[in-house]
Specification:
The complex is a heterodimer of chains A (91) and B (380). Chain A has 3 helices and 5 strands; from the N terminus they run ββββαααβ. Chain A is of the alpha+beta class. In chain A, a hairpin with a 4-residue loop joins β2 and β3. The radius of gyration of chain A is 13 Å and the shape is globular. The termini of chain B are far apart. Classes of the chains: A alpha+beta (91), B alpha/beta (380).
Chain lengths: 91, 380
């Protein structure tokens, strides 16, 4: 898979499932016989990765939701890391 | 509630539902209890659905459907559907026997998330010999069926003296069949594997070579396929943090409804384990003596209680302590600090000096109903 760009449209990788877990009070990523607990920002990014929205759109949405600016670098870095781990995939 | 530990007890994450001990295979390393054939009646569908709901309310997220061979339960689809609806990640742990394309489609429709397929070896001869069945080709067909349904596939191979030298081919076969995860599980010596320990323990040289080959494959495969090499604790001198800590993550429910902190804990003497027919999983998890006895570090004796590694390994495995040292509350004898470590070293030494194959000198004992009943003194 190539490095993500602002145009990439990431979705949760095959075999993984993202869900909110009240008992853990966080988003978790489930996969065969395992679980990753996501921190707040990772959860907020991943739940927007629906395969329809581009990274650019996700950045805009996050900046609005959290009244923040300049998140582009952080989001791209997270998406790249998650792609390496197969949590996210894109064309 | 037993107040041995000051750490608050968190929720269980893993519910392992052992739906049945019935199994078409007769593997010589099976961890099912030696007396499996003398166990009481299996839980019915309603019992399992209740257990699933109670587990999910407690916070469990992973649901393993295991056995025996879980496909022998004709209500498996109903159980999977409820588990998936409740929000579990559903894992089917199977020998492959019974996973026809039709059944696979029904399980997919029910929401099954993942299949773990066991192989015994990369060769037909050893696969069929160790399992006492003709299942090698069938497993290849089933692997294709799993991939056709789009499931992630874990290929699990229990590793021991008789197949460890094939590890290069085993990994190659798993990659060809499209496994995303390969679990090379060195045999853990409980139950049937403990009976057959002398024939199954590999030599240090066999292990060293297997690990080197595994590392070379890991470097070649990168992130595409993950290989887990479950370390053999007999050879390492350091105990494992068994089930990630007693009563910390795992609940196993056996076919008759007994709730256990690990799959083999029922063998431990002097400890009554509750049954899901009588109590809720919440009571069982938080309040039962069975789950509290070895939680944390408060139960430890020397050398564990003053050991610098006691939080790291939690004293190792209670079943191994019982099997080898005949006391479930002592240090796991695989630990080099255990006063019983000599008997582990002796088993490893026998493996070093034995002339393989020993199969002829002392026959392997297959996991079979008649053998199980013979060992508990009941007529087959």
């Amino acid at each position: 898979m190539t490095a993500p760009s602002l145009e990439s449209r990431p979705h949760v990788g095959a075999g993984f499932r993202l869900q909110w877990e009240p008992a853990q009070d966080c988003h978790v990523l489930l996969y065969p016989e395992g679980m990753v607990k996501l921190n707040g920002s990772a959860g907020e990014i991943m739940k927007r990765c629906d395969g329809a929205r581009s990274v650019a759109a996700i950045v805009v949405d996050l900046e609005q939701a959290f009244a923040a600016q300049g998140l582009e670098g952080d989001v791209l870095a997270f998406v790249a890391m998650a792609g390496d781990k197969r949590w996210l995939a894109w064309e | 509630m037993n107040a041995q530990s000051t750490t608050p007890v968190g929720p269980p994450l893993w519910l392992l539902a052992e739906l049945t001990y019935r199994c078409p295979l007769h593997c010589v390393f099976c961890y099912n209890p030696v007396d499996f054939a003398a166990q009481p009646a299996e839980l019915d569908t309603e019992d399992w659905l209740r257990v699933l709901r109670q587990g999910r309310e407690l916070g469990a997220v992973q649901c393993g459907l295991s056995g025996g061979e879980p496909l022998l339960r004709d209500d498996l689809e109903v159980i999977v559907a409820e588990a998936r609806r409740l929000g579990y990640y559903t894992n089917l742990l199977t020998s492959g026997v019974g996973l026809t394309p039709q059944r696979a489609a029904a399980l997919k429709a029910a929401g099954l998330d993942h299949v773990q397929l066991s192989f015994q070896d990369s060769t037909r001869e050893v696969n069929d010999f160790l399992s006492h069945t003709k299942t090698f080709e069938l497993k290849h067909r089933v692997a294709k069926t799993i991939k056709e349904q789009g499931w992630p596939m874990v290929m699990n191979v229990v590793i021991h003296r008789l197949n460890i030298d094939h590890i290069d081919r085993i990994i190659g076969m798993a990659v060809e069949l499209g496994a995303e995860y390969i679990e090379l599980a060195n045999t853990q010596y409980y139950s049937w594997a403990f009976i057959n320990r002398d024939q199954l323990l590999p030599t240090r040289e066999q292990l060293r070579r297997a690990e080197a080959i595994t590392d070379a494959w890991r470097a070649r495969l990168g992130e595409r396929t993950r290989i887990f090499f479950v370390a053999p604790d007999y050879h390492e001198g350091t105990p494992k943090k068994c089930v990630n800590g007693w009563g910390s993550m795992f609940i196993t429910v056996t076919p008759d409804g007994t709730a256990l902190p690990c799959h083999t804990a029922k063998m431990l003497p002097g400890l009554a384990f509750p049954n899901v027919r009588d109590q809720s999983l919440r009571e069982i998890w938080f309040e039962s003596e069975g789950f509290n006895r070895y939680r944390g570090t408060g139960w430890m004796k020397e050398p564990c209680s003053s050991c610098e590694h006691k939080e790291r390994d939690l004293g190792g495995c209670r079943c191994q302590a019982y099997l080898i040292a005949h006391d479930p509350a002592v240090a796991d004898p695989v630990c080099s600090k255990s006063p019983h470590h000599a008997s582990v070293l002796e088993a490893v030494r026998r493996a070093e000096t034995a002339t393989a194959p020993q199969v002829v000198a002392q026959p392997l004992v297959f996991r079979e109903r008649t053998e199980s009943l013979r060992r508990v003194g009941q007529p087959g």
